Structures are given as C-alpha cells and as structure tokens.
C-alpha cells in the first residue's frame, strides 16, 4: 500500500513490479526497484525505514558487504553502506560525474579514490541530493566496501 507523504507517493518494495525473468535464466537474488523521486526529509525517512526492513528480512546477519546500490539515470552505480557512525559510499568510475553533487549535498571533500566516508548524520541530505538522478535501487550483499573504508576518516 503506498504511503501518502504530502505530494510524493512512496511505494513499498512489496508493491513494486519487476520485469519477468526469461525462461531458463537464473533469478537474481535482489532485483532493481524503480526509483520514485523523494522530495522531503519525511520521504527519505520512509525510504530508509522500508529499506532497513527489507534488508533485515532478506539478508542474513552473517553476510558482509551489505548495502544499497543506486543506479544513476545518466550512468554509473553508487553503493551505500551504513555503519554505527558513518556512511560508506563506493562510487564506480563511470559515476564520477556525481562527485560534485555529493560534495554539495553533504559538505564533504571528495576523496582521492572512489570510496567516500561520511558522517552518518549526512544520510538525509545525501539521499535528497541524489533523488532526482537515481533510476533504481537494488539491495546488495557481498560488495567489497571493507578494508579501505576503515582506514579513512570521515568528514563532518
């Protein structure tokens, strides 16, 4: 059932339709969800809550590399993982074009590589900044966020 957030409709994962898988093809574990632009902080909070519930339901506690992949409409993927006090963003090279927006939305300086580490209180600003540029999101497990991220400090 869609949520009414004052002008923006938020549709939970269960209500989304997906393209059928061709006969004989292996079903992907997680399928992309079409993105509906989020316009307010309340919209983002609802999106975060829905994705947290989906992750708890579909991803085991022993799994690593867990997060969300944002497929950008103009090309490239941005992977997001949350930790106790930080957001880890893994920006694929073909999504480099989004770096200035991340800086503008969060106030963080661009890193030397593709891995960004931001304070956890930047989540709503980040999602609102990205919202009009996202084509779909997909839950992920097994993505290599580790190692490099723990060695970096994050920007407040």
End-to-end Cα distance: 37 Å
Write down the overall geometry. Answer: globular
**Count of distinct structural domains:** 1
Element order: H for helix, E for strand = EEEHEEEHEHEH
Mean pLDDT: 80
Total strands: the figure is 8
Major sheet summary line: 6 strands, antiparallel
Total count of helical runs of at least 4 residues? 4
Low-confidence stretches: 1-18, 147-156
Could you provide a short overview of the structure?
The protein is of the alpha+beta class and 156 residues long. It is built from 4 helices and 8 strands; from the N terminus they run βββαβββαβαβα.
How would you describe this protein?
The chain is α+β, with helices and mostly antiparallel strands. The chain has one domain (3-11, 30-151). It has helices at residues 41-58, 99-106, 123-130, 148-151; strands at 3-4, 9-10, 33-34, 67-72, 77-82, 86-91, 115-119, 134-140. It has a six-stranded antiparallel beta sheet with strand order 3-8-4-5-6-7, covered by helices on one side. Strands 1-2 form a two-stranded antiparallel ribbon. Strand 4 (67-72) and strand 5 form a beta hairpin. Helix 2 packs across helix 3 (123-130).
């Amino acid at each position: 059932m869609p949520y009414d957030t004052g002008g923006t409709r938020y549709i939970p994962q269960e209500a989304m339709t997906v393209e059928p898988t061709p006969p004989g093809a292996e079903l992907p574990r997680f399928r992309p969800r079409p993105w509906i632009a989020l316009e307010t902080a309340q919209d983002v909070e609802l999106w975060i809550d829905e994705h947290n519930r989906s992750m708890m339901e579909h991803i085991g506690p022993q799994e690593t590399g867990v997060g969300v992949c944002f497929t950008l409409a103009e090309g490239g993927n941005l992977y997001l993982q949350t930790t106790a006090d930080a957001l880890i963003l893994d920006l694929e090279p073909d999504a480099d074009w989004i770096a200035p927006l991340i800086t503008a939305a969060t106030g963080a300086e661009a890193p030397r590589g593709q891995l960004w580490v931001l304070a956890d209180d930047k989540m709503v600003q980040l999602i609102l900044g990205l919202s009009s540029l996202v084509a779909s999101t997909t839950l992920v497990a097994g993505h290599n966020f580790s190692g490099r991220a723990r060695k970096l400090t994050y920007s407040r």
